[in-house]
Structure formats: structure tokens, C-alpha cells
Amino acid sequence: MAVYTKVSDKQVRDFISSYDIGEFIRIEPIKAGIDNSNYHLFTSKNHYILTIYESRINPADLPFFYNFQEHLINHGINCPKTLRNINGDRGGILSNKPAAVISFLEGQEVKEITSDLCYQMGGIMAKMHIASMKFEQSLENYMGLKKWNSYFAQVKNKADSISEGLEKFIDEELNYLNENHPEDLVRCVTHTDMFPNNVFEKEGKICGIIDFYFSCETSMLYDFLITVNAWCFDKNNEIRLDYFNKMMQGYENVRKFTKEEVDAFPYMCRAACMRFLASRLYDWFNTPDDAYIDKHDPMEYVEKIKFYRNYKLLETF
User: Fold this and answer.
1) Do 22 and 158 belong to one domain?
2) Which long-range contacts (CB under 8 A, 24 or more apart) does 288-294 make?
3) Is residue 2 part of a domain?
4) Across the strands, what pairs with 28?
5) Count H helices, E strands: the chain?
6) At residue 85, what are phi and psi to the nearest 5 degrees?
7) Which residues, 6 or more positions from 24, have their beta carbon under 8 angstroms from its beta carbon?
8) Could you read off the pLDDT of 261-291 as tens digits, one per residue?
9) Number of structural domains found in the chain
10) Taking a C-beta distance cutoff of 8 angstroms, is the pair 34, 197 a contact?
């Protein structure tokens, strides 16, 4: 979550007048995240999240995201629900951009990762993947290999201003990924952004998943390894094998990886890193200076790719 679009109390009061959610009290900006503008919304009835969708989100895809979340809710996964207004619409226009009011989940984002939370996360992901196989809609992965190449092409000449040799490093890595993409992996609609700040916990138990706006059809393994990369390295980018092994155990207690997925592990570990290296590098040079947001360091994922080039993670499990 983040804030790019600033809105007044009057604008929000007018926007929610078409909702049966009580009288406006106040809004508070949410700084975490990178893509949409988000506010805590407090009314006389309850606490909600107000989301304003920014340029990376195609408004035509919003019903897909809403429907996917409702599908998961119906299959026992706790995630936010987009509220309908009195006209039955899930959202409207605020400050000339699509916007929606979303239910607020109790709990707090995961701040301190533990091996037990990794075990829980693995099991929840497997349950989401199994439930998703019954979801009848699909959406292309707009943040896939083609987009990584596009992002890099737009900023490659600036890359060495972050770290000497970064342009050459990414160029070599993209060549490897372009030439070795595996086929025939099990696919479904996945979250593909399961960072700890998108997972809520309460008293040591995971109690909710948020931020589904990168959901798309891709391989289950790719989704799993995005989560591994976000959860199983420490602040020095050193692998926590205890965390990884627990996440694997949690996942495989619900769903076993196929032989094709096991074979694709080395490639997908690196692909799951490049997804965020490419977008962070692009955002580093293209985030507006006045955006209420913390930019993320792309070098974190350089270090993780270097690790995967020399280490076969699955052999530790």
C-alpha cells in the first residue's frame, strides 16, 4: 500500500455517500506498499480501507481481482472483500481514478518472521492454490518475463548509477531466463505478491491475506518461490534454511510438488527474484518525488540471485 493520489475529506465524504457505511469521520494515509493509494477510512459504523487504483492497475481487471478474493473467501481463506454501494457497484471514481471501499481485516501485518509463521504460510499457500484450481476466470501475468525485459530496457543506461556493473549483471541474468524458461508446470491463479506486509497475523497465527492486485495465472511454483524469497532471507540477505524447510513442510503437507516443479526449482528461484529486481529498478527512477512511499532497494534481489547462482536450495530440504 502507498499514497500517490491525495484526496480531501470532502472528496471522500462525497464518494462514500453512495455507500451504506455510516458517516465519514476521518482518513489516514497508509505509507507501506508501492502501487495503489490507500487510506484507513473511519466512519460512524466501522473501519475500512479506501483504495485508489493507480496507473499500474488496468480498471478492466478489477472485477477479476474482486471475484478471486470472493472465491477464496468462499473456500476458507480470510481476505478483504470489496464492498458494493447502494447501486450494487463495487467501486466508483474518486479524483478521476477508479476507487473502492474494502473491508478491514483484524490483526497486523507480519513484522517478525518465525519458523512457525513460515510453516503456516506454506500450508495456506497450498490451500490457496488448490482452491484456485476451481476458479473459472483467468488473467494474463502482465508482470512476467516480457515486462522484466521491458522495464530493464527503459532504465538499463542508469543501472550502474546504483551499483557498478549492475547493467551487465541484469543483462546476463535476463539472457539466462529468456533462454531457459520451463514448460508444463502446474498453473492456477496465484497471489504473486505474498510479502510479509501482505499477510496479517494475530497472536502468532496467520489470520488474513491482503493486496491481490498482482494476482494472475502463473505457475504455483513461481508463486511459492516469490514467497520464499520474501520470507526466508534475513536482513543481510542470508538464507534462513530453517524458515525455508518449514515453509516447504507446510506446503507439502497440503500439496506435493510435481517432478517437473522440482526440476524447475533452480530456474524459478532466480525468476522469482528477477520479477522484483526489474520492477524495483524501474520504480527507483520513475517514482514521483512527492509520492508518500518508501522506495525499495533493487540490490536486495541482486544478492539473492547471486546466492541462487551458486546454491541449490532444494537440496537442503
Assistant:
1) no
2) 288/4, 291/2, 291/3, 291/4, 292/2, 292/3, 292/4, 292/6, 292/29, 292/31, 293/2, 293/3, 293/4, 293/31, 293/33, 293/34, 294/31, 294/32
3) no
4) 40
5) 9, 10
6) -85, -175
7) 9, 12, 13, 16, 41, 43
8) 999 999 999 999 999 999 999 999 987 766 6
9) 2
10) no
Instruction: Give residue 189's domain range.
Output: 109-316
My answer on whether 40 and 163 are in the same domain is no
User: How many whole angstroms separate alpha carbon 266 and alpha carbon 260?
Assistant: 12
In a domain, 3, yes or no: no
Q: How far apart are CA 298 and CA 302, in angstroms?
A: 7
260 and 207 fall within a common domain: yes
Would 192 be classed as within a structural domain?
yes
Residue 298 grid cell:
533493487
Residues 217 and 195 in one domain: yes
Can you tell me the mean pLDDT for 32-48? 87
First to last CA, the chain: 34
Q: Tell me the per-residue pLDDT of 166-223, one tens digit each, with 9 for 90 and over.
A: 999 999 999 999 999 998 899 999 999 999 999 999 999 999 999 999 999 999 999 9
CATH number of the domain to which 77 belongs:
3.30.200.20
**Alpha carbons 78 and 85: distance in angstroms, whole number:** 22
The owner of cell 481463506 is 77
CA nearest to 152, candidates 179, 175, 134, 118: 175
Q: Which of 66, 88, 104 is the last residue of a domain?
A: 104
**C-alpha grid cell, residue 126:** 497450498
- Confirm whether pTM is higher than 0.85: yes
The DSSP line for 234-265 is -TTS-B-HHHHHHHHHHHHTT-PPPHHHHHHH
Largest CA distance in the chain: 58
Q: How many CB atoms lie within 10 A of CB 27?
A: 21
